[in-house]
Amino acid sequence: MEPKEDKGETMNAIAKRITATPAANVQDMAMRIAKEAPTLADLNNEQLEQIARLVMTQKLTNELSAAANLAGINYQAEKETFLDNAGRTGSKHTSRRYRASLARLEAYAERAHVSPLELTPARADDFIYSLKGEAAAASVRCDIAACSSFFTWLERRHENVKNPFRGTKARPAKKAKKELVIPNAAEVKKILAALPAYEAAAVSVMAFRGLRIGALPGMEITGDRFKTRSKGKDISGELPGNVLAAIKAHNAPDKKRPFSGITEAALARRVEYHIGKLHHAGKIKAAYSCHDFRHFYAITEYRKDKDIHRVKKLLNHASIQVTESYLRGLGEV
Question: Looking at domain 185-329, which of 3.30.930.10, 1.10.3720.10, 1.10.443.10, 3.40.50.150 is its CATH number?
Fold first, then answer.
């Protein structure tokens, strides 16, 4: 290739020559640059050094500009705002889960000597790989979802932030779901007969009123009515007679709040411990989880009249679509 200009010409001289006469418009100037500007192969060593200095200056300028933009973001304040509104329901459980996930991300960033806001896609992948050796695949996926949700939220508030978790291939693959096993009416009856009064009362609420285990610790009862919170929402309704009888048999010190003073996790462990013993003794076909009793309730109520609108209200679902999906997962629609 023939050099377009004498290699002794300085870069400033080249630029001055190209801009010597006013351009008619942007397209005219762009055309001049395309035609007149030399390629790297046309440059001598001095000219290459000039370009190298310009490139390094531009690179450092970009890095400093990015750092300044990120420094203007109050990470802790943004995180707390996000956590206060974590999840579509504002659930405290979701907020706690997200906080724990972000704490793990912050610990990784500290070890890497970077701010969490400075994470690149490569570092995000490395963070995921570091988790794989410490936690189950499901927990790692939860952490990724929480961190990705946070960065997606930040993107909407700060144009200089990008979600480094988007499109990652480091996410652990989902394992095949275990077969859904739901107790039948005979097994529920057998379970209730075998459980201690406290655990039997909890199972009765789940199996015959469909409440989640998380709704029980805060449940208040007045007459045959209850009110509580579940998944971040206030819910209320009527308790069937057999549920009220089971709660009465439990003989709680606080009759109005029969499950107060215990956490959701602790209550679930108590219930599932006794059910596990029944399963190991061969008295029931599976070690049912607490949520399996909500499944039992949903199926039982739906089969009464196939009225999905009634079941939606009983399960406190946000929409008919949610109920349809729920029942479809149970093999009912």
Answer: 1.10.443.10
